Amino acid sequence: MTKDKNVSDWWHTDIIEMKPGVIRYRGYDIQDLIGQTSFSQMIWLMLRGDLPTKEQALLLDAVLMSAVDHGPQAPSIAIARMAVTCGVDLNNAIASAVNVLGDVHGGAGEQAVEMFNSIALNHSKGKPLVESVQIEIDNFIHNHGPFIPGFGHRFHPVDPRAPKLLQVVDEAAAKGVVSGVYAKIARQVEIEIESRKGKHIPMNIDGASAVIYAELGFPAPLARGLFCLSRSVGILAHAWEQTEQGGRNKGPMPKDYLWSYGGKDRRPVEDK
Fold it and tell me: Which of 16-20, 156-160, 265-269 shows the lowest per-residue confidence on average (mean pLDDT)?
C-alpha cells in the first residue's frame, strides 16, 4: 500500500465523496439535491443510502416534527434555557441539553423499538402475537424494571401526539407503504399492560414513534439519534428565545423557593 493510499484510507465512508468542485452524497451531486430534496429526505439518504419514496418521507417527517418540543418541563429544554442565562452561546446550550437525552429522557423510543422487534421476531417464528407480547414484557420487566417504554405519560392522561401518529401509520399501511405489523404489536402491548395493571395506560409519543421507526426499518439506536435530532429544534428555539429575553443565572426554580433540607440541625464546630 502506498503512502498516499494510507492517507486516503485513514477514514473510509460511503456517505460523501468530495474533491475540488464536487460534493456528492451517496452518489447524488449536491446541486441536484438542492431545491429537490426535503430535509427529512436528506436525513433518510444520509442514514440509509438511498432517497425514500414520497410516502416514506412523509412518515419520517411526521415523527420528527411531532417530537420537537415539550416545553421547559422537559429537562432538555429547561437546561437549554438555563445554559443561555449562564452566558454561553447557542451551540453550548444545545450541547448541554442534548447531553441529557439518555435512557430515561429520550431513550424510550429506542427501547420500544428493541421490544417491538423482539416481539415481531417471536411472532414470525410461529408464536401467537398475544403470547409473544407476554413473553417480551416479562423479559423486559425482569431485565429493566416495571416501566414499559412507550406507554403512559407523567403529564398527559392521553398523549395527543400518539393517536395521530398511529393514524398516519394506519393510513400508510392501507396504501401498502408499510406493513402495519408494528402498529398491531404496539396496540397488543397496550392491551396486555392494561390487563396487568387493571387500568388503561395509553401509548405515548415514544411508543408511537417507535412504531414508525420500526415500520420504516430504522435500527433501534437510530430511534434515539433521530429523537435527539428532532428535539434539537425545540432546544434551539428555546435557547434563542431565552437569549432574546435575557436573564442571568436562572436556576431550575425561582429564587424565592428553596429546596427541602433533611440533614442535621445547626450545630457548633467542636474542638477535637
Answer: 156-160
The strand pairing partners of 102, in sequence order, are: 106
Do 121 and 181 contact (CB within 8 A), yes or no?
Answer: no
Residue with cell 431550575: 252
Q: What percent of the chain has pLDDT over 90?
A: 85
- Which tens digits make up the pLDDT trace of 35-69? 999 999 999 999 999 999 999 999 999 999 999 99
> Is the model's pLDDT at 8 over the cut of 80?
no
Q: How far apart (Å, rounded) are the C-alpha atoms in residues 61 and 53?
A: 12
Alpha helices in the chain, H assignment, sequence order: 3-8, 30-33, 39-48, 54-66, 75-85, 90-98, 108-124, 129-144, 161-174, 181-197, 205-215, 220-245
- The pTM of the full predicted model, rounded to 2 decimals, is 0.91
Sign of CA dihedral 215, 217, 223, 228: negative
Check if the beta carbon of residue 153 is closer than 8 Å to that of residue 204: yes
Q: Which of 203, 223, 234 is nearest to 109 (CA)?
A: 223
- Model confidence at 1: pLDDT above 60: no
- Domain ranges in the chain are 15-42, 53-251
Give the C-alpha separation, 235 to 224, whole Å.
16
Q: Residues with Cβ < 8 Å from 127, sequence gap 6 or more?
A: 135
Q: Which fold has domain 53-251?
A: Cytochrome p450-Terp; domain 2 (1.10.230)
Burial call 166-182: b when 16+ CB within 10 Å, e when fewer: bebbeebbeeebbebbb
Per-residue pLDDT reduced to its tens digit, 103-129:
888 889 999 999 999 999 999 999 999
